[in-house]
Specification:
6 helices; mainly alpha; single chain
Length: 143
Amino acid sequence: MAQVLTESTQSSSRSTGKIINVTLWVLQIAAAGMFLMVGFLKLSGNAQMVGLFEAIGLGQWFRYLTGALEVAGAFLLIIPRTSALSALMLAGVMVGAIITHLFVVGGSPLGAIILLVVTTAVAWGRRQRTRNLLAGLRQARDW
C-alpha cells in the first residue's frame, strides 16, 4: 500500500513539475518577444521612444542602454542556462521603468508592472539555474 502511495505521489510531482516548466517557458517566450519588440523600437530611434527619453532627461545614451539591455535580456531569457539571471536583470530594468513612469514622465506603468511580475516569476521559477551557473563560475575561478 505504501509503495502505491509513493508511486502516485512521485507521478503527481512529476506531472506538476512538467506543468510548471511549460508555464515558465511560455512566460519566458512571451516576455522575450515583448522585450525584443520594445528594445528594437528604442534602438531604431522610434520617434515616440526618442520623445520619451527626452522627457526623462538623461539623454539619448540612456535609450540606447535600455534598448540594449532589453534586447540582450530577451535573447538570454530563452537560453536555459541564463534564463533566471536574465529575468533578474530585466526585472531591474522594469523597476526602473515603473519608477520613471510614476515620478518622471507620467503615464500608466501597467505594461512595466506586468513584465516585472512575469520576469520575477521566471527568476523565481528558474532560481536553481542561477545557483548552478554561479556555482560553476566559482569552480572555474577556483580552478
